[in-house]
């Protein structure tokens, strides 16, 4: 089953259907994938998508239930992180080499690659022995709780609140990240962008042309911010006092190369972020709510925006990916 909510279903049923499908995919990935690394990667993507479902539905759930389920899903994924994290940094080394000119010898890159390969091998051995089976056991244990997932009221209202809350937080992190240019703020923004990407995937059936364009734009931005984060992790690794990957001169040149790539990635991310998060949270959530209500009742005419939310003004939109979104410069 695809990662989409069905407008024809009651909301709680639609959420359960998607969430249970993600558990099934994750279990299959861990149980039968011949490529252990690929299986772990696919399972971790399922856990991220499942957490996005919970976050979107959070306003319609008792807070203790939300916190419990989110913590349990995160705990399953945490045990699988080591092997994937090592591979992500190996991929980051390759991208850095492809996208920048060397400033000195590539000694640090060779040394870092060797260290990361050993780290990944150790993590994969542990995964094969204990971690993988433990993750599958926890997946089976959490299934009854996911099967009981429900929101109140059983309609789109809680999800509209979830969209607005998540979009507002991500927009705030975007502004803070651009203002401060700090890796921590950029990482928080990245996490919000990932959630937005998955939320748009979930809601695509209510207006496929518009929301699939938003999902693709958010995915591309998430990739940029992910590359930036991986480079920050490489810099942290090579600058750790207890680690030596080359001469001081080589290390300095490597860090300089990383910072150059940071600058290019962040410039591109700023442009994409300004376009994606230009619309105010209230109108954005109201618009999605109207789309979903229209899709759910199966009519062609637009429906009225809920009175409790701010209506979308015609002068608050510009085109994005062939659709309409908020105008730049408004906050």
Description:
It is a single chain. The protein has a two-stranded antiparallel ribbon with strand order 1-2. The protein is an all-alpha fold and 331 residues long. The protein has one domain (11-295): CHAD domain. Strand 1 and strand 2 (323-325) form a beta hairpin. The two termini are 38 Å apart. The chain is globular. The protein has helices at residues 11-32, 36-57, 63-78, 81-99, 107-147, 157-180, 183-203, 208-239, 248-276, 281-297; strands at residues 318-320, 323-325.
> How would you state the average pLDDT, rounded?
85
What would the CATH topology be?
A: CHAD domain
Tell me the distance between the termini: 38 Å
Largest sheet: 2 strands, antiparallel
Annotated CATH homologous superfamily: CHAD domain
Strand content: under 5%
Query: Would you state the CATH class?
Result: Mainly Alpha
Written as H for each helix and E for each strand, in order along the chain, the element string is HHHHHHHHHHEE
Return Rg in Å.
22 Å
Q: Percent range for helical residues? A: over 70%
Q: What is the CATH architecture assignment? A: Alpha solenoid
| Number of DSSP strand runs | 2
Map the helices and strands.
Elements: H1 11-32, H2 36-57, H3 63-78, H4 81-99, H5 107-147, H6 157-180, H7 183-203, H8 208-239, H9 248-276, H10 281-297, E1 318-320, E2 323-325
Antiparallel strand pairs: 1-2
Quick overview:
The protein has 331 residues and is mainly alpha-helical. The chain has helices at 11-32, 36-57, 63-78, 81-99, 107-147, 157-180, 183-203, 208-239, 248-276, 281-297; strands spanning 318-320, 323-325. Helices cover 73% and strands 2% of the residues.
